[in-house]
Amino acid sequence: MTSPDLTTRRSMQFWFDFGSTYSYLSMMRIEALAQQRDVAIEWRPFLLGAIFRSFGWDNSPFVLQKEKGAYVWRDMARQCGKYGLPWTQPSEFPRRALLPLRVALVGAQQHWSGAFCKRMMQINFVDDRHIDDPDVVARALSELDLPAEAIVAAALSEQNKRDMRAQTDEAVRRGIFGAPTFFVGEEMFWGNDRLEDAISLAAR
Amino acid sequence: MTSPDLTTRRSMQFWFDFGSTYSYLSMMRIEALAQQRDVAIEWRPFLLGAIFRSFGWDNSPFVLQKEKGAYVWRDMARQCGKYGLPWTQPSEFPRRALLPLRVALVGAQQHWSGAFCKRMMQINFVDDRHIDDPDVVARALSELDLPAEAIVAAALSEQNKRDMRAQTDEAVRRGIFGAPTFFVGEEMFWGNDRLEDAISLAAR
């Protein structure tokens, strides 16, 4: 969705983590919705776990608060049904996603960003497999006809690691407290339930 | 919305607290939506603060987690704009609502339940005034041509106080962790964003 005319087109930021359940819903929906409204997506992978740690939490609130956690699995199944998306409750939650997120950062300005990100989400929330695994990531890139080795090397470069930390610091600075989060200018929208509202504002 | 044929009509439970921001949105919307789908509403006032205390929290998560709290005020203003509802950010949050909730429990099976509950919400979130006040509650009842003194006396009876505690215990037992919450049979829906889904399930 990123394109040379990004600066002149209306755009929105999509902040996500591959471990985040509700980010899965938005990831699978955002490209079609944004395209319909001619809105460009700025892909913003970040480390949600670092945000939680900044609040003094050592895990996802869906794990720390068991009542909400139990609800989330039921809600996710229903939401996927509503959107026509496949769904498998992951046997491990939240899944680590550091390498895939670093790759997504490398790809954020590239044509393959959406396809790669959707594939990572599907591996986690449909195939129920680990995603923080060099083989899994490389295979996904190869299946997209991309130079997997070079991209993984770029993802693991010191510069990209610093960029990933800087991106997460920016999330903290902007007041992000969960994922997915959308920004249209300074206007923040939290949660898949606000995706349509965010796109509508961006398209105005 | 409650009526003699409640047991045969499709119905849903609406669990709310007058101090809850997102319960305000649902309170102002639920009657019209339920009527369109011929769904009866079971009014379920409960003490959200007691639920939070059962999690070890001494206040609303919107107060305890300042990033989320800051977002909620912006989101509420936008949501009210979307639904065409008036909105004033309350100068005190969360407002105590024990007496109004006890009155709502007395009225749960009565024709005036929705009108009274909406009025309490408007006083909190539009007029920005205290609601846990006998004069405010009595005036609201009188304006609905109801016997205010008798209803407040019933609300303050030992039986009704016990019933209020029992209702909140039931909320805990059912896994409720926030408000508004809707139940259609055993199916739980959390948040104003799920109101339409809950009504659709009830209407099926």
From TrEMBL, chains A, B:
<dbReference type="InterPro" id="IPR051924">
    <property type="entry name" value="GST_Kappa/NadH"/>
</dbReference>
<protein>
    <recommendedName>
        <fullName>2-hydroxychromene-2-carboxylate isomerase</fullName>
        <ecNumber>5.99.1.4</ecNumber>
    </recommendedName>
</protein>
<keyword id="KW-0413">Isomerase</keyword>
<dbReference type="GO" id="GO:0016853">
    <property type="term" value="F:isomerase activity"/>
</dbReference>
<comment type="similarity">
    <text>Belongs to the GST superfamily. NadH family.</text>
</comment>
<dbReference type="InterPro" id="IPR044087">
    <property type="entry name" value="NahD-like"/>
</dbReference>
<dbReference type="InterPro" id="IPR014440">
    <property type="entry name" value="HCCAis_GSTk"/>
</dbReference>
<dbReference type="InterPro" id="IPR036249">
    <property type="entry name" value="Thioredoxin-like_sf"/>
</dbReference>
<dbReference type="Pfam" id="PF01323">
    <property type="entry name" value="DSBA"/>
</dbReference>
<dbReference type="InterPro" id="IPR001853">
    <property type="entry name" value="DSBA-like_thioredoxin_dom"/>
</dbReference>
<feature type="domain" description="DSBA-like thioredoxin">
    <location>
        <begin position="13"/>
        <end position="196"/>
    </location>
</feature>
